[in-house]
Specification:
Oligomer: single chain
Shape: globular
Strand order of the largest sheet: 1-2-3
Radius of gyration: 16 Å
Number of helices: 7
Distance between the termini: 45 Å
Structural class: alpha/beta
Largest sheet: 3 strands, parallel
């Protein structure tokens, strides 16, 4: 019942990283990547996510689902849905602000605020939006050339370097982020 290599990879990663005190593993929010999406691929995703969360919890490792460039998990509402299917404090959200802003149905600021208690880190990058005639551009968009509010959204605190934050992941949420309205 475990057709995906990701589960075996996660078991290996958990065994490898636990001695080095790595306590958060980011999971890409895809049910499948190269294969066609089916109801069965979604069911396998939920089944395997439960197993992965159970394994991670035994090692005291947090798993966080990243919002993606794919409709399967492209919003914090969808992460919340899968959290409700697994029901574990060891499963949290890892929003990719660029991916969220590229999807026109996301109200990024409000969703970040309403899910702040479930967010362990954020990923910042620029993207170009999904539209009626465009699939969007999610990778390799030069900073400040895309639509993402990463540069404006990441940091309002003086002790964060906005240039560094827009080039990389912001890291653990040690400060409350003020998002533009």
């Amino acid at each position: 019942m475990l057709p995906f290599a990701d589960l075996a990879s996660l078991v290996f990663i958990l065994a490898l990283v636990t001695p080095f005190v790595r306590r958060n593993i980011q999971l890409a929010g895809y049910d499948v990547y190269y294969e066609p999406k089916t109801l069965l691929s979604r069911e396998y995703f939920v089944e395997n996510l439960r197993k992965c969360v159970d394994m991670a919890a035994k090692k005291l490792v947090m798993l966080s689902i990243e919002t993606m460039d794919d409709p399967f998990i492209n919003s914090l509402d969808k992460v919340t849905y899968y959290k409700s299917q697994v029901r574990s404090p060891w499963l949290q959200a890892y929003p990719d602000v660029g991916n969220l802003t590229a999807w026109p149905t996301n109200d990024v600021g409000r969703k970040i605020e309403s899910n702040i208690d479930n967010i362990v880190a954020v990923h910042l990058k620029d993207t170009k939006p999904v539209g009626e005639t465009s699939k969007g551009v999610f990778k390799r968009v030069p900073s400040v050339r895309g639509r993402s509010t990463s540069r404006r959204a990441c940091v309002s605190s003086n002790d964060w370097d906005t240039r560094a934050a827009t080039r990389s992941r912001c890291g653990p949420m040690s400060r409350r982020i003020r998002w533009p309205r």
